[in-house]
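Predict structure. Chain length: 483.
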Amino acid sequence: MTEYEAVIGLECHVELSTRTKMFCACPNEFGAEPNTHVCPVCLGHPGTLPVPNRQAIEHTMKIALALDSAVAPRSLFHRKNYFYPDMPKNYQISQYDLPIGAGGHLDIEVNGDSRRIGMNRVHLEEDTGKTVHASTTGRIADSDYALEDYNRAGVPLVEVVSEPDMRSPEEARAYLTELRSLLESLGVSDVRMEEGSLRCDANISMRPAGAKEYGTKVEIKNMNSIRSVERAVRYEIERQTEALGRGEELVQETRHWDENKGLTSSLRSKEYAFDYRYFPEPDLPPVEPDEEWVEKLRAELPELPAARKHRFVDEYGLDPAIARIVGGSGELAAFFEETVSLGADTRSAANWMVGDLAALLRENDTELRASKVTPQHIADIAKLVADGSISTAGAKAVLAEAFASGAAAEDVVKEKGLAQISDESALLAFVDEVIAENPGPVEQFRGGKEGAIGFLVGQLMKKSKGAANPQEAQRLLRQRLSS
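Prediction complete.
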C-alpha cells in the first residue's frame, strides 16, 4: 500500500492597523455601521485616483524584515481583474511578480523539534468588501440573497505566503501561532481572527512519501481560528489520502471548511494566475525604498517572539515549554514581566499564568486584556503561597474571585476566610479527629502502606475547608501516627 505525505503551504491575509484605508482617506475601523466608511475612491467611481498609504507600505516592509525576507528595491502594484460583488471596482489593486518582500523564513517548534519554514512572498494589496449570505450556514448555496458591506473594501491587506514546507496539521498550527505572535509584536495588526483581521487559506496536496513532485493542490477557505486551521488540514489530509487509496483522481479546486460539521466541501474550481489578467496599475508609481529607509525600519523592529523566548529561558530560568507560551505573545510577555517587577518569583508567576489563569480565560472565552486580573493579582497570589499565608487550593479560589470581581487578593483572603492554618495547636485538633474517624487507613499506614497518608491528609484538608497547610498537616499526622 502506498504511503503518502502531506505538502502544506499557508496563505495568511493580515489587515494592517492604519488610521485610513490603503488608497483613500476613509477610516480603517472595525465594527462601524455597514457602508458608512466609504468614498468614491474605494467604491471605484469613474475618474477617481488612488493615493498609496505610506504607513501601510512601512508596515509591510517591517513584516518582510522580521521574516528575513529581502525588501525589493523596486516593487509594483498590479490590477487583479475579476468580477465579484465584494469588489466594487471589479478589480483589486494587488501585487503580482514584483512584491515588496521575497524569500525569508519562520522557525517553528513542534514536539520539541525545530523546523524552518520558508517564505515565498510578502505583498501588499487592498482588501475586498464583506458579503453576508442570508442563510443559517452562511454559505452561498443555502442563501436566498446576499448583502454587501464595503467598509472593508480598500483596507490595507498584507498577504504572507509560505513555501509548501509543512508536513502535518501540528506544523500548520505551530506556523500560524508563531506568525500571529510575530505580527502582534510588530504592532502592525491586532491579528484578531474572529474579526477577520487575520485570515488564513491552506493549500494542501498529497504525494507518495519520498517523491519530489507535488500532487494536486486543493485550497481550503473559511477557517476563522488557529484550531480551525489545524482541524481543516487534518480532515483534508485524510480525505485526499482515502481518495487516492481508492484510485480516484483529485482535482485542483477551492473547498469550504464547515466548522460545525468538521469537513470540507467543494466550492469552485481553482483559478490560475492568468485568469486574473494581471497588468501594472497605471495610476500608481513603483515602490522604490532606498537603503536608508529600509535600515531605519530595521532599527525600529522590536524584540521578536523567538528572541524573547530565549531571553525568558536565560534571564528568568523558565522551562523552554513555558517560555514559548509566556514569551510567544507580546501581551502575555508584558503581563509576565510586570508581575515579576512587582516581586513575584519568575517560575511561580509563569506557572499561574499558563495554568489557572489561562484556564479561566478559556472557560470564559475572554482575552487577557479584557479580564479583571492584573499583574498585581498574580504577584500577590504568588507571594501569599510562598510565605504560607494561603494554600494552593486557597490561591486558586482567590484567583477565581479576582477574575470575577477584580477584588484585591488580600481582601479576598480575608472575606472568604482563606488564610492558611499553620498553627500547630489548631492543626493537631484536626489531626486527632481524622485519626479517630479513619481507623482503617490509620492501621494501613502503621502497617507500612505509605499511600494511606495521602488519604488522611485529604480528609484533614476537607475538615479545614482547604485552609490547612498540607505540608504541616502531613508532618503532624506522621508524628502522631508514629508515636
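Summary: Residues 303-416 form one domain.
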